[in-house]
Amino acid sequence: MSAGIPQGDSWVHAALDALHRSLDDDRSPIEFHPAAGDASPLWSIRGDVPPDQAAAIVRTSGSTGTPKQTRLSAAALESSLRATAQALGGHGQWLLTLQPSYVAGLAVLSRSLAAGSVPIPLLQDTTDPERFTEAAQRLTGQRRYVSLVPTQLQRLLDHVPEHPSLAAVLSRFDVILLGGGPGSPALLESARGQGLTVVRTYGMSETCGGCVYEGCPLPGVRLSTEGSGRVRITGPVVASGYVGDDELTAAHFSQDAETGMRSFLTDDLGEIRTDAQGQQLVISGRVDDVINTGGVKVSAARVRAALLTHPLVRDAVVGPVPDLEWGQMVGAALLLAPAGAAAGTIEQPQLERELKDLVRGALGPPAAPRRLLLLTELPLLSSGKPDRQQLLHLLAEGPGREEREDTTWQH
């Protein structure tokens, strides 16, 4: 990578320079660390990892378990940014709203290097309407991009009625990449209503971030499924493996015999359809999202999809809750629409009955959640994703929590 680095005294310039050297030179890989509070992000050079194994180390978010240290090569990062630019219609200037310690933030820095532009950082209060508006207005590039997780986009859209200028700056983005988890149909409909160009992405740290846009693989990426339905991603964007875990690396990474490209076996279940436009990926769940309740296997992803059809449910995290009688039971933590989002008043017992009946009618009695946690905010990881582990812990504790004391929900 040969783009020049604009000069300045911002941490962003120093970060771009450090990443530039890690990508271009035969040096040990760089690892970015999350910023504490209002401090700027820090980074270190991983002398314990040989230069030929990686150019950057990214720790997975840990949203579904223990974080892993992923080794990304310069070739993989460069392949990812080239394919992204091709899919988006060219390089541009980015608003950086995700920490560079996560792959989506690192991707923004690497794309900025290739474009010869400087991203505008907004790493704290990313959904504050005034701060977001001010940061977005500083973008001067001919093409403007931002990567957001669904929670960020939802909170920004919630502010639009009181902040018309926010709607204006959101519409100035040529593309808003939405990743880190599936966006609800209501969120996507709301974004379309504002005239926003939102592109849903699928990918992970092990694929240098999003490598499937709106179900279609990026140029050079090939998708396949194992007999169990697990999704396999093959192409130049695939990482080299994990730091210090040869067994896990061997379980997930391999070399494709046909193309010679690296291949990554995900923990996601899906179906690949082929049409005139090429491959189309539909994710149906995860290997570990099957809930075994009384011998009946229930897909957590399908329960979530059913719950999201209720007009008062903005988001949902569904998972297994231990049960002495049934082994496991279906639990669901729900983010409700804010007060005033719809007309009328619904008491909590009535809403819970509606939600259970909704799932029961769509998927059968075993799939109906037996434990519901109704929330006005979801606990989040620093990546902006819902903290699934904390929510499952709250569900396991059972009803009677503070969030459930008010028996009437205003809408």
Give a verbal description of the structure:
The protein is 29% helix and 30% strand. The protein is α/β, with parallel strands linked by helices and 411 residues long. It folds into two domains: 11-283, 3-Layer(aba) Sandwich (Rossmann fold); 294-410, GMP Synthetase, Chain A, domain 3 (2-Layer Sandwich), CATH 3.30.300.30. The strands form six sheets. Strands 6-5-7-8-9-10-11 form a seven-stranded mixed β-sheet, sandwiched between helices. A five-stranded mixed β-sheet has the order 2-1-3-4-14. α4 (129-137) packs across α6 (164-171). The longest helix is centred in the C-terminal third of the chain and has 16 residues, at 348-363. The radius of gyration is 22 Å and the shape is globular.
Distance between the termini: 53 Å
Q: Radius of gyration from the CA trace?
A: 22 Å
Estimated structural class? alpha/beta
What is the general shape? globular
Largest sheet: 7 strands, mixed
CATH architecture of the largest domain: 3-Layer(aba) Sandwich
CATH superfamily of the largest domain: ANL, N-terminal domain
Number of β-strand runs = 24
Helix content: 25-40%
Strand percentage: 25-35%
Report the uncertain regions: 1-9, 340-344, 400-411
